[in-house]
């Protein structure tokens, strides 16, 4: 590879099966936009130069985004009820998880609890951005200790991308 500005980097011959041995690759850290040309020399010392300039674009990684589709505000439910959550989350490089984070205010243990949402990826023409639908059935009757009438449960959704960046929903 010949980088803009004149720097050069060797392509390394592939290893493994016969198909891989007929390939070459280079790896590099992308810290800024760059352009390069490439040249390949075969075992007979025949050289082929690229007839175009190739580019690498450095893009800043953004945190995930969350859209809560349901519920969209406060929920009134009985202690035997359930609340269905439905969200859409997206990330430019890949979503790792989405969780319901909740806190029972009248319960002796007021620590935050987490329940994973089931992620469903849409079949897309491009792998990025990674857009997922996520759902969860939050069964109040399964909580221990039992939910009491008039009990308040605060909640939000947290999404984490593959690099560990987090985003929380508004409610």
Provide a brief overview of the structure.
By secondary structure, this protein is mostly beta strands.
What does this structure look like?
The chain is mainly β and 171 residues long. A four-stranded antiparallel beta sheet has the order 8-9-13-12, with no helix packed on it. Strands 11-10-14-15 form a four-stranded antiparallel beta sheet, with no helix packed on it. A three-stranded antiparallel beta sheet has the order 1-4-7, with no helix packed on it. Strand 12 and strand 13 form a beta hairpin. It starts with a strand and ends with a strand.
Indicate the overall shape: elongated
Largest sheet, described in full? Answer: 4 strands, antiparallel
Seen as an oligomer or otherwise, the chain set is: single chain
Arithmetic mean of pLDDT: 89
In DSSP terms (H or I, runs of 4 or more residues), the helix count works out at 1
Biggest sheet, spatial arrangement of strands: 8-9-13-12
Radius of gyration in whole Å, from Cα? 25 Å
Low-confidence segments: none
Kindly name the structural category: mainly beta
Ends apart, CA distance between termini: 50 Å
- The number of distinct β-strands equals 15
Range of helix content: under 10%
Order of helices and strands: EEHEEEEEEEEEEEEE
């Amino acid at each position: 590879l010949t980088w803009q500005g004149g720097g050069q980097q060797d392509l390394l011959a592939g290893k493994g099966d016969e198909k891989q041995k007929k390939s070459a690759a280079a790896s590099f850290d992308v810290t800024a936009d760059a352009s390069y040309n490439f040249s390949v020399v075969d075992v007979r010392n025949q050289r082929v130069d690229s007839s175009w300039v190739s580019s690498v674009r450095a893009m800043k990684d953004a945190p995930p985004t969350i859209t809560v589709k349901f519920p969209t505000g406060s929920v009134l439910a009985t202690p035997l009820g359930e609340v269905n959550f439905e969200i859409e989350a997206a990330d430019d490089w890949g979503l790792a998880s989405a969780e319901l984070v909740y806190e029972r205010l009248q319960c002796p243990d007021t620590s935050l609890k987490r329940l994973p949402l089931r992620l469903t990826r849409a079949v897309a023409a491009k792998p990025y951005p990674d857009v997922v639908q996520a759902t969860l059935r939050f069964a109040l009757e399964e909580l221990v200790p039992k939910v009491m009438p008039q009990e308040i449960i605060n909640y939000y959704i947290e999404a984490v991308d593959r690099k560990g960046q987090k985003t929380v929903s508004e409610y």
